[in-house]
Design goal:
The protein is of the alpha/beta class and 221 residues long. The protein has eight helices and eight strands, in the order E-E-E-H-E-H-H-H-H-E-H-E-H-E-E-H. The strands form two sheets. Strands 4-5-6-3-7-8 form a six-stranded mixed sheet, with helices on both faces. The protein has a two-stranded antiparallel ribbon with strand order 1-2. Strand 5, helix 6 and strand 6 form a beta-alpha-beta unit.
Length: 221
């Protein structure tokens, strides 16, 4: 099967401080990967590295929803395709959105059960609603690979699973940092665990039980 993402011996850091060390990671087209590990293990850095390698093929959901709080939910979702519209069209959309754009953004918000908030200010939303807006923006972006940093952490497991399944229909390939073991085992094809910037476990979910992952989340002694 064709590779969608490939890293070979990749390393990364910030300000001269190494964070990732010798990462070998291959993600096949159509594969759903859950990236797991303790806080500070390097998950966000790895997701950023993946995005930097192929931004033209990736719809990104950052850890912070990264919304413009003073703009409407519509305009925040519309930003998912900002780079594919003319400057004139984008300026006009600030005041007079075209019917087609309204319909397409509404469809994206339907995916995350948030179409009733389309004209609300993003800053008025709850944390979970802001996260769903960020997911709708990625869906509207439409690029085939979904990369997300704890994209459903503010949602309960049932709601998070339902929304991820809808997202997978549009983004068949995904690499998502998740903290919920049950959600990862239920919705991903494969789990990759990071510790101190290195991959310490990489297996299909069919070959993993929760007990295999729990030691990697226990507090270090």
């Amino acid at each position: 099967m064709e590779l969608a993402v490939e890293l070979v011996g990749a390393s990364a850091g910030y300000g001269g401080v190494p964070v990732l060390h010798g990462i070998d990671l291959a993600v096949r087209t159509g594969e759903r990967v859950a990236l797991m590990g303790r806080s500070g293990a390097g998950k966000s850095t790895l997701l950023n590295l993946i995005y930097e390698r192929a931004p033209e093929r990736i719809a990104l959901v950052p850890q912070a929803a990264a919304l413009v709080r003073t703009l409407s939910v519509f305009h925040n979702v519309y930003m998912g395709r900002l780079d594919r519209r003319s400057t004139l069209h984008n300026l006009r959309t600030l005041a007079w959105p075209a019917r087609r754009d309204l319909d397409e953004v509404r469809a994206a918000l339907d995916v995350v059960d948030l179409s009733d908030k389309m004209f609300a200010k993003a800053g008025e939303l709850s944390g979970g609603q802001q996260q769903r807006t960020s997911l709708a923006r990625a869906w509207y972006n439409g690029r085939p690979i979904l990369v997300g940093d704890e994209p459903v952490s503010a949602l309960d497991r049932r709601q998070g699973a339902a929304i991820l399944r809808r997202m997978y229909q549009r983004h068949p390939t995904s690499v998502l940092a998740l903290h919920d073991i049950g959600l990862a085992l239920g919705e991903a094809d494969r789990v990759v665990v990071l510790e101190a910037g290195r991959i310490v476990l990489d297996r299909p979910t069919a070959a993993i039980v929760a007990a295999d992952l729990e030691p990697h989340f226990a507090e270090a002694a």
